[in-house]
């Protein structure tokens, strides 16, 4: 949530390379043209059961912003944080737009779900490390995708993060999670969709969590004709569509969520020049377009 809020601010506020940010919550690194790369240190929960986790931002949202809007943005996960203690640390880095520049509109591209690829990644951290939870989650998610999709299941890769990785080592408490990314041809970020479920230590069930993640990813893959975004990515791209110049469009795998409809209403109030249109395609997918406000970076 913090990253979603701060990304547009970092993008549209260029500063001189000599300008310094305040405190430990941000910083600047010089770009080749003399501008300063904007950086923000975000502290809080990175993996919670009721929201897309930090891995969704790193493996789905940011690659999509890079591939579809041309943004230069990245995030480094320094420490995971779990409910209720939080304490996770993520460093967000964005190359701001040049003074007077803006975002180009996003276009929906042809899809071919039959040649999509899956990436299944799981982790266990803190007191959950070394208990085999992540390996069990990867195996369960893989088997569930094959069971649901059968012969239509795309090729996939699996990976278990090392328990002693820096982000998994020094955490308050502990937990585990599994994330599935759907990658369609044309771009590593095109049509990327993620599903994740944090496996909480008390009452957590890694098998159930992995099955739920697989079910969500399979639903996106099964969207007739393919889609540009799942429910969460749809929510998160709307602000950039509103800020961009021209007509942006995407095919969402499902009907706009309450998050999405709220985001569109807020965008229209703050950027009266933008206009959204949503059309149901009759097969569960929705076509979402936006005439963007064409906001330019500060001079």
TrEMBL record:
Protein's UniProt keywords contain Signal: yes
GO molecular function, one term: RNA-3'-phosphate cyclase activity
RNA 3'-terminal phosphate cyclase domain segment(s): 36-273
Signal peptide: 1-17
Keyword Membrane tagged: no
GO cellular component: nucleus
GO biological process: RNA processing
Assigned keywords, A-Z: Signal
Protein name: RNA 3'-terminal phosphate cyclase domain-containing protein
């Amino acid at each position: 949530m913090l990253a979603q809020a701060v990304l547009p601010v970092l993008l549209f506020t260029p500063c001189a390379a000599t300008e310094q940010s305040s405190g430990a919550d941000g910083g600047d690194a010089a770009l080749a043209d003399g501008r300063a790369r904007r950086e923000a240190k975000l502290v809080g929960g990175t993996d919670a059961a009721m929201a897309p986790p930090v891995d969704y931002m790193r493996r789905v949202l940011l690659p999509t912003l890079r591939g579809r809007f041309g943004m230069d943005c990245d995030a480094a996960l320094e420490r995971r944080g779990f409910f209720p203690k939080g304490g996770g640390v993520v460093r967000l880095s964005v190359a701001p737009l040049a003074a007077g520049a803006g975002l180009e509109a996003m276009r929906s591209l042809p899809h071919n779900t039959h040649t999509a690829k899956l990436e299944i990644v799981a982790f266990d951290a803190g007191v959950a490390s070394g208990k085999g939870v992540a390996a069990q989650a990867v195996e369960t998610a893989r088997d569930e995708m094959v069971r649901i999709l059968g012969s239509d299941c795309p090729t996939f890769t699996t990976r278990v993060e090392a328990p002693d990785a820096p982000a998994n080592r020094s955490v308050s408490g502990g937990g585990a999670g599994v994330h599935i990314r759907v990658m369609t041809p044309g771009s590593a970020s095109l049509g990327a969709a993620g599903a994740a479920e944090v496996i909480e230590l008390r009452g957590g069930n890694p098998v159930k969590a992995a099955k739920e993640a697989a079910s969500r990813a399979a639903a996106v893959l099964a969207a007739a004709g393919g889609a540009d975004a799942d429910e969460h990515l749809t929510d998160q791209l709307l602000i950039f569509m509103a800020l961009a110049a021209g007509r942006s469009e995407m095919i969402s795998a499902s009907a706009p969520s309450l998050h999405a409809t709220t985001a569109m209403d807020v965008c229209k109030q703050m950027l009266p020049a933008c206009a959204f249109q949503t059309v149901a395609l009759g097969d569960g997918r929705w076509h979402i377009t936006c005439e963007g406000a064409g906001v330019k970076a500060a001079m």
